[in-house]
């Protein structure tokens, strides 16, 4: 069963499973994309519409998956939530901060735990159960971009909890592993920069090529192949691991900031002298304080 699998990494994973002879039950919010993926291979891919943040959806999802496939041997959890409010912590109301944090944890951690809880019996009965979730290098590398702190914190929590589950369920032969991703070319970036054209989006993503030791960003299909490996018996002695699928970002120890500044009349152009907006705001505030002190 694959939660959040209608586009990008999720869709690539469903296709990879089907291509290798497996069956997969997908669920995601976009009905059009879910149906389109099912139509590609209706003998191997099944699914329905769901929202990963819905607390009551998982028991019914598991029942439908078991009805279609006879059981669940693997669970893949890929939902992404990322907000682009660039307001500084100091300037944001505390209730808004907690709201954004709760939303991030709802999709990244709590939804994952609900999916695991609902699938446990079927995973145990299979005796080859494998669970794969997705983290990010943001859990390890500080990325000085307002809004990223919620994302990085949630992914770090997901990594820790995944290891805990791996230890608890190892005696039942249910394996838990997590992929820590670098920058991957996927439609999920639309939530971060919705106004960019496809060409501008690719240009923006490629500005961080040099942050990766391999000097390029990753593709959804590369992540999907790693997920398939972890679901398969080929990885039967791997559990509790955080596997870096990051093109060597953690090896270089840096992740260059993006600039999302663009407009229809002024296409996105990578700026080598780009100043992070957080640092820019703080410098402006510091300069204003100096100016006020001088005037006083």
Short structural description:
This protein has 296 residues and is an alpha/beta fold.
The residue-averaged pLDDT reads 84
- Terminal Cα separation, in Å? 65 Å
DSSP E strands, number? 9
By CATH, the superfamily comes out as NAD(P)-binding Rossmann-like Domain
Radius of gyration, taken over Cα atoms and rounded to an integer in Å: 21 Å
Strand percentage: 5-15%
Structural class: alpha/beta
- How does CATH name the architecture? 3-Layer(aba) Sandwich
Tally of contiguous helical segments: 9
Total domains, how many?
A: 1
Oligomer: single chain
The CATH class designation is Alpha Beta
- What does the main sheet amount to? 7 strands, parallel
Low-confidence stretches: 259-276
Features:
single chain, alpha/beta, Rossmann fold, two-stranded parallel sheet
Would you mind describing this structure in some detail?
The structure is a single chain. The chain has 296 residues and is of the alpha/beta class. 45% of the residues lie in helices and 13% in strands. The chain has one domain (2-295): 3-Layer(aba) Sandwich (Rossmann fold), CATH 3.40.50. The protein has nine helices and nine strands. The strands form two sheets. It has a seven-stranded parallel sheet with strand order 3-2-1-4-5-6-9, sandwiched between helices. Strand 7 (184-185), helix 6 (198-206) and strand 8 (218-219) form a beta-alpha-beta unit. The longest helix is centred in the middle third of the chain and has 33 residues, at 94-126. The termini are far apart. Mean pLDDT is 84; it is low at 259-276.
């Amino acid at each position: 069963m694959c939660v959040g699998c209608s586009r990008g990494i999720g869709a690539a994973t469903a296709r990879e499973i089907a291509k290798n002879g497996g069956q997969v039950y997908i669920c995601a919010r976009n009905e059009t994309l879910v149906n389109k993926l099912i139509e590609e291979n209706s003998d191997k891919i099944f699914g329905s519409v769901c929202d990963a943040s819905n607390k009551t959806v998982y028991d019914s999802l598991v029942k439908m998956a078991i009805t279609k496939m006879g059981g669940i041997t693997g669970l893949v959890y890929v939902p992404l939530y990322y907000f682009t409010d660039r307001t500084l912590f100091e300037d944001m109301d505390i209730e808004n901060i907690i709201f954004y944090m709760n939303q991030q944890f709802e999709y990244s951690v709590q939804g994952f735990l609900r999916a695991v809880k609902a699938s446990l019996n079927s995973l145990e009965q299979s005796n080859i159960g494998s669970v794969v979730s997705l983290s990010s290098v943001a859990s390890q590398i500080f990325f000085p971009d307002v809004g990223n702190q919620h994302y990085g914190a949630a992914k770090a929590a997901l990594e820790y909890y995944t290891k805990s589950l791996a230890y608890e369920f190892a005696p039942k032969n249910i394996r838990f592993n997590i992929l820590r991703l670098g920058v991957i070319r996927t439609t999920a970036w639309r939530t971060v920069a919705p106004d960019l054209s496809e060409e501008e989006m690719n240009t923006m993503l490629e500005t961080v090529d040099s942050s990766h030791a391999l000097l390029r960003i990753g593709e959804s299909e590369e992540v999907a192949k790693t997920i398939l490996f972890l679901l398969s018996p080929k990885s039967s002695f791997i559990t509790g691991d955080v596997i870096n699928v990051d093109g060597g970002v953690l090896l270089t120890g840096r992740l260059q900031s993006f600039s999302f500044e663009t407009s229809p009349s002024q296409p996105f152009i990578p700026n080598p002298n780009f100043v992070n907006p957080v640092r820019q705001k703080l410098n402006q505030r510091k300069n204003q304080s100096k100016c006020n002190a001088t005037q006083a």
